Amino acid sequence: MSEFTYAASGVDIDAGERAVTLMKAAVEKTNRPEVVGGLGGFAGLFALDTAKYRRPLLASSTDGVGTKIALARQLDRHDTVGIDLVAMVVDDLVACGAEPLFLQDYVACGKVVPERIAAIVTGIAAGCTQAGAALVGGETAEHGDLMDADEYDLAATAVGVVEADAVLGPERVADGDVVVAMASSGFHSNGYSLVRRVVSAAGLDLHATPSGLDRPLGEELLEPTRIYARDCLALVTELGVERVHAFAHITGGGLAGNTARVVPEGLEAVLDRGTWALPSAVRLMEEHGVPREESERAFNCGVGMIAAVAPEVADAAVAQLGGAGIPAWIAGAVRPRTGQSAASLVGTYR
User: How far apart are CA 63 and CA 60, in angstroms?
Assistant: First the structure.
């Protein structure tokens, strides 16, 4: 074979086409009635029924999975990071009250291994199904001269819709609101550069089960990000936009840092650590040198999403989320600000 072919340069078109064939069935399962056409077009088409809305606003979010992918590569397990990818964008969308409509993904890799790409995209499709969003297309790019053969990275953009008079956020949050915490499923998709450094420095075995955990460390660390979008939207539908005032997706920056983003000037959200237990995996990181202050900035510490709700519906919100399979509890309240911070943690973890 001539050295001057695309395949010899590191791009295997046939492998890319086989990857599309392997992922097609999973992608098609994500279709919503509004999707026009199928996989393989140059653009994804989605028919927004404008008659359904009074004044629709389109919302969009773009994100990736980050260095959690390095652990997926290390453990040679690629079927969960796609769920992480979806969660990172749709749970951002729902923070403003938007319903995720559709998503497009981008996979950059050193070499297209059809089975690996199909596993990644099947995970993306599973996440889309959980979120109620259609996967209307994407791109797989083979960069053999930029990345090692087993390297890859992921990104996605999701689009959602929300009524203009139903946008959630700090403008709705009021003195006396109750902060409802929703449990995370693990580290989600943030803090993994620190996690991986601790694992390496401490010589932790990803295949062993450390004290305090009930499964191998690698499985714990690859646990997919919980997708809250549908259950948050159901909370707004059931309790009303006049009572559910804001959501905050707890990602990089931690619980206090992200909660502060939905608290208006003059108020602060005070969260009581004593209302939940610090996850064992976070304690493991701390046992191997991560200071508590850094844990609370880098990790979600057991809370993946919060809702600021009117006090009269706080118990109902907790009950509804629990019934949907999301452990939830009253973690604090909004009050007049007494210091510099818009959100703070007090007390001691259980």
Answer: 10
Residue 162, classified by CB atoms within 10 Å of its CB into exposed (0-12), middle (13-18) or buried (19+), is: buried
> 221-248 in b/e burial notation, b at 16+ Cβ within 10 A?
bbbbbbbbbbbbbebbeebebebbbbbb
Residues carrying CATH 3.30.1330.10, the chain: 10-163
- The CATH architecture assigned to 10-163 reads 2-Layer Sandwich (3.30)
Query: What does each C-alpha distance from 269 to 92, 304, 343 come to in angstroms?
Result: 20, 16, 5
Residue 9 has pLDDT above 60, yes or no: no
Q: What is the pLDDT of residue 22?
A: 67
Q: For residue range 51-66, what is the model confidence (pLDDT) as tens digits? A: 889 999 999 999 999 9
Position 10 scores a pLDDT of 63
Nearest Cα residue to 159 out of 17, 58, 85, 308: 58
β-strands 244-249, 134-142: how paired? unpaired
CB 125 within 8 A of CB 23: yes
CATH class of the 170-346 domain in this structure? alpha beta
Average pLDDT over every residue of 22-33: 74
Give tens-digit pLDDT for 154-199.
Answer: 999 999 999 999 999 999 999 999 999 999 999 999 999 999 999 9
> Which residues in the chain are classed under CATH 3.90.650.10?
170-346
The pLDDT of residue 47: 87
